[in-house]
Amino acid sequence: MSFKLTDEQLMIQSMVREFSRKVVAETAAERDKTKEFPADNLKKMAELGLLGMMVPFDYEGSDSDTVGYVLALSEIAYSCASTAVVMSVHNSIVCESILNFGTEDQKQHYLKDLAMGKYIGAFALTEPEAGSDPVSQQTTAVKDGDHYIINGTKRFITTGKNSGLVIVTAKTDPEARHKGISTFIVTRDNPGLVVGNTEDKMGLRASDTTDLHLEDCRVPAADMLGKEGEGFKIVMKGLDGGRIGIAAQSLGVAQAAFDAAVKYAKQRDQFGQKISKFQGLRWIIADMATEIEAARQLTLSAAAMKDSKKRFTTQASMAKLYASEMVNRVTAKALQMHGGYGFTKDYPVERFYRDARVFTIYEGTSEIQRVVISNNILKDKRTTK
Ligand code: CAA
């Protein structure tokens, strides 16, 4: 499938590219050092409609399709991967889950505010002992009149500290497996939602990743997302879209590393000529460009499939698997092309290399993507029907 972008998609791409390279890029290296959350970037992104990209106009969103969203997210990731992951979780998982499974009240009450960027959304599924296998989670939600009382600990939560709303999963039936899990909307003003340890990470340093403790957290039953026991499917569907987001993020970082490497190769003299004249490097450049293009096609194809309302689970996992592995190869090669300078903080390529490392891990490891893809091909296991 080859893509001819529509005028609207091209317009989104060019608008976000200009904004990202002028505004977001300016503070990215500094934020990587200070770990300062990109609140100012996000405020401007809200004004541009980038925080409710696939949310319909009726709920104050930009009503873009997924292809337009992928283009925008890649452009933000090109300049600052930390800002991009916040945008990705907020749009792909939080807004989309409320849009797809929320009641009209929840959409009026929460989705509009999220789309306008009044607060940022987070998604709390992972636990200390439940990463790839979310069914083994220990967090419980017990019905108490017209409320649920949630108790447990969530780990590695993107924007755990700086979000205003968190989608939390918990077991409403601890004996059941998938069908025992439910999802809840929990807001920051809830005293039972307590921020714990913040991780000190090798990359994405300006995006906070924290523990969240749910301590007798009372949530109105009206803030359950979907029906009781529907939580596993809601998060799996959310992750299908989220994985396209991580592929888009991978594309943006890969393109940034590639552009930096090409620029460097054209400037750097060794053995009496520009290093770009050496065939060894030219072949590496050709391989990098080819892999980036392959990842772009897979990612846009998954996005287009989602837009056409077809089942896109396999395509999303393929895009995430290939693009996240690709960006790790591309950033490593880009760093190598910079020689010793690539290993210093004087060039952004070392940041790209560190930022990319988690892409094969979060929102489902590469190994989990292979499980999803192969199970869907072989259809001899229950993973997705
Ligand atoms: N869409 C809709 N339904 C789905 C689905 C999907 N994509 N995937 C599974 N389901 C349904 C199945 O149809 C099945 O339904 P029935 O019971 O009605 O038959 C049910 O869910 C169970 O499916 P499986 O038996 O296939 O489930 P499984 O236990 O074998 O697990 C898995 C499947 C793919 C391994 C899944 O557990 C998984 O994706 N694990 C990885 C979790 C993950 O990505 N964690 C990342 C954390 S989030 C994060 O990183 C966010 C961040 O902050 C950046």
UniProtKB/TrEMBL annotation:
Record-annotated Acyl-CoA dehydrogenase/oxidase N-terminal domain positions: 6-118
Any one GO molecular-function label of the UniProt entry: acyl-CoA dehydrogenase activity
Pfam families (UniProt xref): Acyl-CoA_dh_1 (PF00441), Acyl-CoA_dh_M (PF02770), Acyl-CoA_dh_N (PF02771)
Keyword Oxidoreductase in record: yes
Origin superkingdom: Bacteria
Stretches assigned to the Acyl-CoA oxidase/dehydrogenase middle domain: 122-217
Keywords: FAD, Flavoprotein, Oxidoreductase
InterPro entries xref list: Acyl-CoA_DH_CS (IPR006089), Acyl-CoA_Oxase/DH_mid-dom (IPR006091), Acyl-CoA_Oxase/DH_mid-dom_sf (IPR046373), AcylCo_DH-like_C (IPR036250), AcylCo_DH/oxidase_C (IPR009075), AcylCoA_DH/ox_N (IPR013786), AcylCoA_DH/ox_N_sf (IPR037069), AcylCoA_DH/oxidase_NM_dom_sf (IPR009100)
Subunit structure: Homotetramer.
UniProt family annotation: Belongs to the acyl-CoA dehydrogenase family.
Protein name: Cyclohex-1-ene-1-carbonyl-CoA dehydrogenase
Organism, as annotated: Desulfosarcina widdelii
